[in-house]
Amino acid sequence: MELIKSAITGDLTSRLISFLVNKFSDHTCCEEKVTRLEQLLLRVHMVVEEADGRYITNSCMLVHLKMVVTAMYSGYRVLDIIKYMKNKEDTGDLVNDSAALSFATPLNRSRTTVCTARKRIFSSELQCALEKLESVVGDMNEFVILLAGCERISQKPYDTYIYIDNFMFGRHVEKQHLINFLLENNIAGPPPVLPIIGGRGVGKRTLVMHVCNDERVSSQFNFILHINGANVGQITENGNLSARTLVIVEFFSDVDDNDWKTFYSHVTNLSRENKVIILTKIEKLERFGTVKPMTLNRLVYEEYRYLFKTLAFGSTNPVDHPQLIPIVEEFAELLEGRLIPANILADVLRKNLNVHFWLCKLRQVQITAKKNMTMSGTHPHKLFDQGHPAHFTGYVLSPPTIITPNVPQNDLPQLRFGDLLTGHIFPPKGDFKLISWESRILPYTSFVHTARFCLSLSQDQPESPFGSYTEMELIISSITGDLTSRLISFLMNKCFDTLYSDEKVKRLEQLLQRVHMVVQEADGRYITNHCMLTHLKTIVAAMYSGYHALDTIKYMKPMIW
To answer: Which PANTHER family match (predicted)?
Structure first.
């Protein structure tokens, strides 16, 4: 009997020791991966930022840059989730630790099973992001050497202003393509025409204005002329085209071929050194281009949520507000890559970093989207893209109209979307003009909706889509949110068995810092080698994947069951 007891005790002890050793080993290994990912992302970001400040003419380098940027933003998303998990792990439990001893119940066994499954998912994402960044950084030495030989773009305070406030975020490759087109010497023949095709609000004009502000580009042309596509016939009235001129034409509808031929013939006759850029969302207008058209798509999710997070927090460190990180993810999914709504909401959220305020605004967006999906089967943003009105509680909003300064307006009252979202003012029981966005760059256009009051919609949904919760709703939301947060924190901390150690997180942060530094340096170089740009794209993509993994560990850990 003593031998049997000894054998059983020895076996149980051996299993317990093995379990604890494996658990600690996994914890240490994952923390090291997070740290490594963070360091790699930093190095990659450094290279991307440096490349963005350089003149790049090699097309293969631009292809590589695009790949790097994609991987970088994916890495940042992983890093954000990891950081959220890690931060929540350190916040403590809701109840006494003795409650954790009840691990024998079926419910706790179920939670443990789910927790293990989610841990495997996040561990897989972390490993994937790390492998991408390691691959990028491994081939970065030659790329950085070549990048150093590229001419640096002269930076001005206005450039930074545009970069931050007018969505010159990303678009590294497109910017280089456009600069190369404008700086290239015209060969014998008519003026080259570059069509830039993209949907509403993707940043076509912002990209062109940012590039035109470049010192080399602005010195290349005597005049930069902006023309509305509906007025191309008036080009004959402009005598400045005899000097070297960049003509930017924005088309909102298709144009007759004969009208275009007349316009283009006049531009050609005045000076063959002129160049033409077409801005439009109509793909058929590609037929007027003499070079390969440039297509601007919406930012991919990883890149878009990184932008929204940056705008929403501003100068505030997101680590100080871990509960807001998951809300950023929700907003990014709801907004579907739209830049103008992102800027509007981020401006409102940045002024009040309260989790219940953010949840309130998130709920408003969700209700609006759900209502339109119920009534028309389409998201309100897509309705606007298609030229259809969208429904809000009590109102029907027309698609935005682009208004230039000094254009006479009707007598309807004008309200700003941001003021309505903050709850500082309330919409009238009648029609009004809703200004959703006012551009901060030339020609300072505004996006204006006509909001028409609808009594039937108002009676159906009396609550304003722009207003805030009532005082009682805020109190209830605050109490419920706090209890829910504490409960989730308690359950997650009990299930999560220290998957990510501090050592790994620190290592990932160091790697990300190094990569980010290199990306930033490369972004300011003039690159002509297409292989360097190809490599740059891979570096950036891997960097953002690392940031994604790091945030996942630091912030999202308590969300794993």
So the answer is: OS10G0134033 PROTEIN, OS10G0134700 PROTEIN-RELATED
* Residue 510 φ/ψ, nearest 5 degrees: -65, -45
Give the integer Cα–Cα distance in Å for 286 and 194.
9
Based on the number of CB atoms within 10 Å of its own CB, is 167 exposed (0-12), middle (13-18) or buried (19 or more)? Answer: buried
83 within 8 A of 325, measured Cβ to Cβ: yes
Question: Could you tell me which of 176, 208, 180, 222 has the C-alpha nearest to residue 280?
Answer: 208
Rounded Cα gap, residues 12 and 379, in angstroms = 58
> Between the CA of residue 172 and those of 68, 213, 334, what are the distances in Å?
10, 15, 25
Q: Residues 108, 113, 116, CA angle at the centre, nearest 5°?
A: 120
Give the Cβ contact number of residue 113 at 10 Å: 12
Q: Which residues of 413-436 are buried (b: 16+ CB within 10 A; e: fewer)?
A: eebbbbebbbbeeebeeeebbbbb
Please list the residue range(s) of the chain that carry CATH number 3.40.50.300: 187-296
Helices (H) and strands (E) counted in the chain, each on its own, are: 19, 11
Residues 294/194, Cβ–Cβ less than 8 Å: yes
Contacts of residue 152, Cβ cutoff 8 Å, sequence gap at least 6? 53, 54, 55, 524, 525, 526
Q: What sign does the dihedral 360-365-86-312 (CA atoms) show?
A: negative
Residue 48 · residue 147 · CB < 8 Å:
no
What per-residue confidence (pLDDT) applies to 111? Answer: 43
DSSP states of 326-387: HHHHHHHHHHTT-HHHHHHHHHHHHT---HHHHHHHHHHHHHHHHHHHHHHSS-HHHHHHTT
Quickly list DSSP for 191-240.
PPEEEEEE-TTSSHHHHHHHHHTSHHHHHH-SEEEEEEGGGGGGGGG-GG
Average pLDDT value over all residues in the chain: 73
Query: Which run of H or of E encompasses 266?
Result: helix 257-270
Q: Are 408 and 429 in contact (CB under 8 A)?
A: no
Residues comprising the chain, all counted: 561
Residues 146, 152, 154, CA angle at the centre, nearest 5°? 170
Q: What is the pLDDT of residues 78-95, one digit of tens each?
A: 888 777 766 555 433 333
Closest CA to 312 of 326, 297, 292, 299: 326
428-485 tens-digit pLDDT: 777 788 887 777 666 677 778 887 777 655 544 444 444 443 444 444 444 444 444 4
- Cβ–Cβ < 8 Å for 539, 515: yes
273 three-state secondary structure: coil
Q: How confident is the model at residue 205 (pLDDT cuts 50, 70, 90)?
A: confident
Pick from 74, 7, 537: nearest CA to 300: 74
Q: How far apart are CA 360 and CA 355, in angstroms?
A: 9
Q: How far apart are CA 152 and CA 322, in angstroms?
A: 38
Q: What is the CATH number of domain 187-296?
A: 3.40.50.300
d(CA 250, CA 421): 31
